[in-house]
Specification:
Layout: H1 17-27, H2 29-49, H3 60-71, H4 75-88, H5 91-105, H6 121-158, E1 163-168, E2 171-177, H7 178-197, E3 202-203, H8 213-218, H9 224-234, E4 238-239, H10 250-279, E5 282-284, H11 303-326, H12 336-341, H13 344-362, E6 365-367, H14 369-377, H15 384-396, H16 405-413, H17 420-428, H18 434-441, H19 452-455
Parallel strand pairs: 3-4
Antiparallel strand pairs: 1-2, 5-6
Helix pairs in contact: 1-2, 1-6, 1-13, 2-3, 2-5, 2-6, 4-5, 6-7, 6-13, 7-10, 10-11, 11-13, 15-16
Length: about 475
């Protein structure tokens, strides 16, 4: 074998690195360590603000310099932490020692023993994960998801009046419009993204078994419960008062299940668009220099949607596993969550890559009205629904004596291809009012779309009343 340099094992860090790099700012090991340092620093400031154990309140400049440890965290610090962890064999202890040395460099050794004070590693980790996951979802994943929804919304509004033969069970069915079908997906995604936004990012800060035992041993008179609540909420998180050593991760399970649900709806969109391309409803726009097949020059393959399908399946598998695993911890603590949470970035990375591919794929297709029209014109039998429904209304109103209209139309249309002339001739011979006949004779598959176009108004932000 040829001597290769060290290569990325995951395609997210290799082939697709550019598309998902923004997540690395938060969900990489470096992003996690920066957040750990942030928690350690803010806890130091919180303790000194209360002047606990004879400490003094830091000056504004000292607090600023402490916080600069976080904002200026870079490659040298990453390498420094790696060296420290190689000795400590403990990632959070390495962070603590780094902060202590930073304090010495700032001339603040007087408060060095308040570093990591009364903390278990999980006090630091659970808040660091909450901060990084929240930033990754809100600042990276959610904007991409909302951008995709806006692309779909624009396309749905453009195609609101474009008639299309529906296919229930894969068979010709009551026509709709392409815009209405896309609007269904937009509506589903809007509701699901709102549910993702509603998730509370929770944190705990209560010691080795969630009892504040060490805190009270150090100072029995201080209100440590209130201090914990104020500290966690001060980080912009929701405080969890009742935990074991770990924060219970229920919010994470909720978040991952909801993001996975978004992915499944998008997977449904991908398979539908792929089918519409196969049926000729959408034509693919050739991309300069692109090759569809290594042997068949004519081919343009819908690879964007196929790639997205695969990544959505991987994302859901990982997200579902995270949601199932993280809610369980043996007794007061085990480390199964530690390894599991390191894969949050991988799960969201596959989801983000899918969002990118769908967005690009939608920009590489165009509606083919002629293909849609041919399919509609070849399936006049779908008007059987309208005819039998009108007859039933006429019978109820006393304007017809036809028995079992449904059976009559079933006999005429089921398993048969009929023309517009066939249907018009059939309607002319019906025992119904002249007005009803006129309405039915005027029908065509292209016009039999009901309120489909009006329903698209429900996703139009320009309309106040829907």
């Amino acid at each position: 074998m040829s001597p290769l340099s060290i290569q990325p094992l995951s395609p997210l860090d290799g082939r697709y690195q550019a598309q998902v790099a923004a997540l690395g700012e938060h969900l990489s090991e470096a992003g996690l360590n920066r957040a750990r340092i942030q928690v350690e620093v803010e806890w130091l400031i919180h303790l000194t603000d209360a002047e606990l154990f004879g400490s003094r309140r830091l000056t504004a400049d000292e607090a600023r310099q402490l916080r600069a440890i976080v904002t200026e965290f870079g490659d040298d610090d990453i390498a420094d932490l790696a060296r420290r962890e190689a000795v400590t064999r403990h990632d959070v202890k390495a962070v603590e020692y780094l902060v202590r040395d930073k304090l010495a460099a700032l001339g603040l050794t007087e408060i060095a023993e308040l570093t990591h004070f009364a903390c278990t590693s999980e006090d630091i980790n659970n808040l660091a994960y909450a901060l990084t996951i929240r930033a990754a979802v809100r600042d990276v994943w959610m904007p991409r998801a909302r951008s995709l929804v806006e692309t779909l919304r624009t396309l749905a509004l453009e195609l609101r009046d474009q008639p299309m033969l529906a296919h229930t069970h894969g068979q010709p069915a009551t026509p709709t419009t392409m815009g209405k079908e896309l609007a269904v997906t937009v509506h589903r995604l809007e509701l699901l993204l709102a549910s993702v936004d509603e998730v509370e990012y929770r944190g705990k800060f209560s010691g080795a078994t969630g009892t504040f035992s060490a805190h009270l041993a150090a100072d029995p008179d201080h209100d440590w419960i209130s201090a914990s609540r104020d500290f966690v909420t001060g980080l912009g998180l929701t405080w969890n008062p009742l935990t074991t050593q770990i924060e219970s991760h229920d919010w994470q399970a909720q978040l991952y299940q909801r993001i996975s649900h978004v992915g499944r709806v998008l997977h449904n969109l991908c398979t539908d668009v792929w089918s519409y391309i196969s049926m000729g409803y959408f034509r693919q726009i050739p991309q300069p220099g692109a090759t569809g097949s290594s042997t068949m020059p004519h081919k343009i393959n819908p690879i964007r949607f196929e790639n997205a399908e695969a990544n959505l399946e991987l994302a859901s598998a990982l997200l579902d596993s995270l949601a199932a695993t993280l809610v369980t911890s043996r007794l007061q603590r085990d480390l199964t969550d530690s390894t599991t949470q390191r894969n949050v970035g991988v799960a969201l990375g596959h989801s983000l890559l899918a969002l990118d591919n769908i967005s690009k794929g939608l920009g590489e297709i165009a509606i083919d009205p002629d293909s849609l029209a041919r399919d509609l014109d070849g399936n006049w039998e779908v008007l059987g629904e309208a005819i039998q429904t009108v007859i039933r209304a006429e019978v109820t109103a006393g304007r017809s004596s036809i028995a079992d209209p449904y059976a009559m139309l079933k006999e005429l249309t089921r398993g048969h291809r009929i023309s517009g002339d066939d249907l018009r001739s059939f309607v002319d011979g019906l025992d119904i009012s002249a007005e009803a006949k006129a309405r039915l004779v005027a029908l065509s598959p292209q016009g039999y779309v009901g309120a489909a176009a009006r329903l698209v108004d429900y996703i139009d932000p320009a309309l106040d009343e829907r």
